[in-house]
């Protein structure tokens, strides 16, 4: 099983203090103040959570400018990935490589016997291969696609994804489009496939509060689909109380977080550029990286281990299918924190 980023607990067990975590790609502004305030109110926790997430569904539907009945909520995007795999029991799946490892894990756990990987090649900047849609054949049950992709940060425009979606519809395959990092793009609306939901009921879009609102510990995600039968199957594919009352209230508070989104966009745009240029000055090769993290090649396989004594967690990408040791992912954080990472890398790389 691939190790995920954000494991601050193993570090604290070993070093006795909290690390500066560049391994988890969360909003560097941290939890919105409105969410912190809402979490202080424990009223209603003696009752079971609302299984239908009624209030949250209305609020997110309004925020997404979509019908509320197209939404289904889960215990983070990972819960929804599991539910999709268990609900539809795909026998044959197509995945890009490299990409988020939870797709493969959930597929195998649900009994999928054939997982086809489509390599996104280094010489092409890890962008989608032109023949990706041609790999969807009769008998392909499901296609997962992360946009922006994790860990590369590469993003595809709708005109590149539409042929994939059309072939999926022709072949009777579900297309699960993970847009969890879409909110960190400079122009999120130019890359989302939401306008095609009504036309393609086989399209499921994944989103989460985890990244954009730094709510990883609260676990709240949702999917969007225009086909009510798909959402009904998801609701039956696991236990009913999968979204706690606290998570639902936190989600509502996050949507009311004033200028938080605008402040996030400004910070990410500025610091992503700084970090990209700083990494390149160190002689490292940066790919894609249009979201809130930088994907780069350093040429040595143990950089993440050498950063541990510096109090920094970096995400090694060696465990991603199709990537060799030497590839890394670093979250975009505040300027002071990004400087600390660069100074630590400069110190380590100068001793090679």
Please describe what this structure looks like:
- The protein has 352 residues and is of the alpha/beta class.
- The protein has twelve helices and 13 strands.
- It has helices at 8-15, 33-39, 54-64, 77-88, 102-109, 158-171, 209-212, 228-235, 245-255, 260-281, 303-307, 335-349, and strands at residues 20-21, 71-74, 92-97, 114-119, 142-146, 174-178, 203-208, 221-224, 285-287, 293-297, 312-313, 315-316, 327-331.
- The strands form three sheets. Strands 2-8-7-6-5-3-4 form a seven-stranded mixed sheet, sandwiched between helices. The chain has a four-stranded antiparallel sheet with strand order 9-10-13-12, with helices on one face.
- Helix 2 (33-39) packs antiparallel against helix 9 (245-255), helix 3 runs parallel beside helix 9 (245-255) and helix 10 packs parallel to helix 12 (335-349).
- The chain is globular.
- The two termini are 31 Å apart.
Q: In summary, what is this structure?
A:
This protein has 352 residues and is of the alpha/beta class. The chain is built from 12 helices and 13 strands.
Layout of secondary structure:
Layout: H1 8-15, E1 20-21, H2 33-39, H3 54-64, E2 71-74, H4 77-88, E3 92-97, H5 102-109, E4 114-119, E5 142-146, H6 158-171, E6 174-178, E7 203-208, H7 209-212, E8 221-224, H8 228-235, H9 245-255, H10 260-281, E9 285-287, E10 293-297, H11 303-307, E11 312-313, E12 315-316, E13 327-331, H12 335-349
Parallel strand pairs: 1-11, 3-4, 3-5, 5-6, 6-7
Antiparallel strand pairs: 2-8, 7-8, 9-10, 10-13, 12-13
Helix pairs in contact: 2-9, 3-9, 4-5, 10-12
């Amino acid at each position: 099983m691939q190790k995920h980023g954000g494991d601050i607990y193993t570090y604290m067990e070993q070093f006795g203090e909290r690390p500066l975590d560049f391994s988890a790609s969360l909003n560097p502004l941290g939890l919105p103040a409105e969410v912190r305030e809402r979490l202080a109110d424990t009223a209603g926790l003696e009752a079971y959570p609302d299984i239908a997430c009624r209030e949250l569904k209305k609020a997110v539907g309004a925020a997404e400018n979509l019908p509320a009945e197209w939404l289904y909520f889960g215990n983070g995007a990972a819960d929804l990935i599991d539910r999709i795999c268990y609900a539809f029991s795909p026998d044959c799946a197509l995945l890009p490589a490299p990409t988020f490892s939870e797709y493969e894990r959930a597929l195998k756990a649900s009994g999928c016997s054939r997982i086809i990987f489509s390599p996104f090649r280094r010489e092409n900047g890890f962008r989608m291969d032109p023949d990706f849609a041609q790999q969807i054949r009769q008998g392909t049950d499901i296609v997962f696609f992360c946009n922006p992709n994790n860990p590369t940060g590469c993003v595809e425009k709708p005109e590149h994804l539409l042929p994939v979606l059309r072939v999926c519809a022709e072949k009777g395959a579900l297309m699960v489009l993970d847009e969890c990092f879409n909110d960190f793009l400079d122009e999120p609306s130019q890359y989302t496939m939401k306008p095609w939901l009504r036309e393609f009921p086989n399209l499921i879009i994944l989103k989460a509060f985890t990244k954009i609102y730094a709510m990883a510990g609260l676990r709240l995600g949702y999917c969007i689909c225009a086909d009510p039968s798909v959402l009904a199957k998801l609701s039956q594919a696991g236990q009913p109380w999968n979204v706690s009352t606290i998570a639902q209230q936190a989600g509502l508070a996050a949507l009311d977080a004033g200028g938080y989104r605008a402040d996030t966009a400004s910070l990410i745009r500025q610091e992503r550029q700084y970090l990209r240029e700083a990494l390149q000055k160190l002689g490292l090769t940066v790919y894609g990286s249009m979201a809130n993290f930088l994907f780069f090649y350093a040429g040595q396989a143990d950089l993440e281990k050498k950063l541990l004594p510096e109090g920094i967690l970096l995400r090694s990408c060696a465990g991603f299918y199709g990537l060799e040791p030497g590839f890394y992912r670093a979250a975009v954080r505040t300027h002071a924190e990004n400087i600390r990472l660069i100074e630590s890398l400069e110190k380590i790389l100068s001793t090679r």
